[in-house]
Structures are given as structure tokens and as C-alpha cells.
Known about the structure:
The model is unreliable at about 1-10 (pLDDT under 50). The protein has helices at about 1-15, 25-40, 80-85, 95-105, 125-145, 205-215, 230-235, 240-250, 265-270, 290-300, 305-310, 325-335, and strands at about 45-50, 55-60, 70-75, 110-120, 145-155, 165-175, 190-195, 255-260, 275-280, 315-320, 340-345, 350-355. The longest helix is centred in the middle third of the chain and has 18 residues, at about 125-145. By secondary structure, it is of the alpha+beta class. Helix 5 links the parallel strand 4 and strand 5.
Amino acid sequence: MKQRNSLHFEAESFNLSYKDSGVDIDAGSAFVKAIKPVARTTFTPDVLAGIGGFGALFRLKLSKFKDPVLVAGTDGVGTKLKIAFLMNKHDTIGIDLVAMCVNDIVVAGAKPLFFLDYIATGKLDVRNAAEVFKGIAEGCKEAGCALIGGETAEMPSFYSEGEYDIAGFAVGIVEKRKIIDGSDIKTGDRLIGLSSSGLHSNGFSLVRKIFIDSKRYGLIDRISGLRKGLGEELLTPTRIYVKTVRNIIKRFRVKGIAHITGGGITENLPRILPAGCRAVIKKGSWKVHPIFRHIQDTGGISDEEMFRVFNMGVGMILVVSESDVRNLIRSLKRMGEEAYAIGHIERGKRGVVYD
């Protein structure tokens, strides 16, 4: 009994708070207060309750649909975050987060409705987190979806000092008969590539090994052919293709769309091909950003590996009938897109070959 009383007394003498363990509730509350006005700038009339409640409320207006289908996607930014930490630049990484999610759902023809985020860190830096959040809001506005909620988790000793991780969740809607799934793709159809802004958010473990871990370059170094310092170039945000794709599918019959994300063209394009069809990609038919050449030359990487890891300058590929190619590219260029006819579909085992 004496021993128990002694232990009880010692525990009381600590007079601990949650903040002493590394979790600052006040900082979390300050962050929520700071981001609420930013989130509201993305709201549509269908948002009934957003950030601050236990669950966000979004009203679905289904009267315009005969057979609506919800399309959901989730993703993160991967080790591109390491570059943001090293550069202490956090204002664009949120755009990447939104892009990785909404680009995945728009390929089905869906209109993004709303987005939620998750930010986890060891110790919340309100300023940096707010910068990330502003990027998320900017991405949501570009994608035309509402940022209606999320979660911020402070997890002491779980992450290295100054580091965090982020994840995103997007939901969109499409009429069932208008779902784009690649099932109508056939021999003779053509492939139209939409230019990327650079690396987007894939392959950064390899990029860091080549440029950073090897100490061959510093993040402020200028490399021939690049418009920015290396770090700024690597942090160029992922392009959001929602407006472009949504405009095009209203005017053209697009049979399939592939988001060229992790796995490059080699792994992503076959995901939309029917059995018995393979894609033939014509190398040199589009402009490859200099960053990819520097990665390949510096790392001594084969063409095969480059196309299996990176987007190689093409962030989205559309599959259309040959008769639509000329008008489609003309329309895309009028919209400010760099678009290229990059290949065709032929009979063969599902996959990609390079010509």
C-alpha cells in the first residue's frame, strides 16, 4: 500500500499536460482558425458544413443525372516532400496533392466535387502548415472542387523535426453512360499526349539519389537548359488537367484517358487498354523537358527505365479515333495546351511498345 501511495504521489508531482508530451492543442486550434477563411474560398453552394465540425456536409443534387456514379481517389506526394523540407518551401506542395487525386478521377470523365486533406507531423509548425494548406486550396480552385474538411495530426517523435506527411482524398461524379473506361478502344485509334510541367510527383526517390544523395548538385545550382535553380525546378507543381479534360469530353468522343503518374507511360497506359490492344509510342513526337535528360544523363539511366518511372513530358494521354485527331489538337492548342499526336493502337498483347 505504501508503495502504491508513493507512486501515486510521484505521478501527481509531475503535473504533466498534453503539451509536455509534445502535442500543442492551442497550436492546432490556431491552425484551424487560420485556415477556415482559406477553405471557404473554395466552397460551392453545395457545401453545407465544412472545416471545424466532426464531418463535412455536401449536398448532392442528383436531378440532373439519370444514373449517377461517384468516383473516388486518394494519393499523396511521396518523397517530393523531402525537396520541400530541404528548400523550406511549402507553398506549392499542396497543389501537387490535389493534382494527384483529381487527375486520377477526371480520367473516368468525372467532375470533382470535394476534397479532404490529412496532414501529419511531429510538431505542428503553423506557418508551414498554413502554406501547405494555401496550396491545397489553390489546387481545389483550379480543379473546381470544394475543400470541405480534413485532419491535422500532431504525433511527437514519430516524424523527424520539421517534417510532415500529407494525403488527399477526392470525390467526383459522372453519369454512368458517360464513364470513360477504355472499353471502346480499338486498333487504329490514336494517342494524344498533353504536356506535363516537369516531374510532377513521381520518381523522386531516384531523383534524390542522383542529384542530392550523391552531392553532385546543390538545390540552388543552375543547370544548363533549366529555367530555374534545381530545387525550384524539382518543386514545380503537378499540372491539374481537370478543366482541359472536362472541356474536351463535352466536344469530342474520348475513348480512354490515362494519367501518367507513378510507373510512367509504360505502366499507366495499359491500365485503360482492352485485351488484344497494345499502344505504340513514337519517341521524339513530343517535347521532352530538359530535366528528364539531365536525370538520364547524370544517372546513366536506360530509356526503358526512364519511361517506366517518369512521365517524360506527357502528363495525360487521350485515346481518340483517327478522324478526331486534327480537330482535337487544334482545340487543345486554342485552350493553351501543348498537345501532340504521340502514337496509335494496334493489335497485340496489352502493353506499350516504343518506336
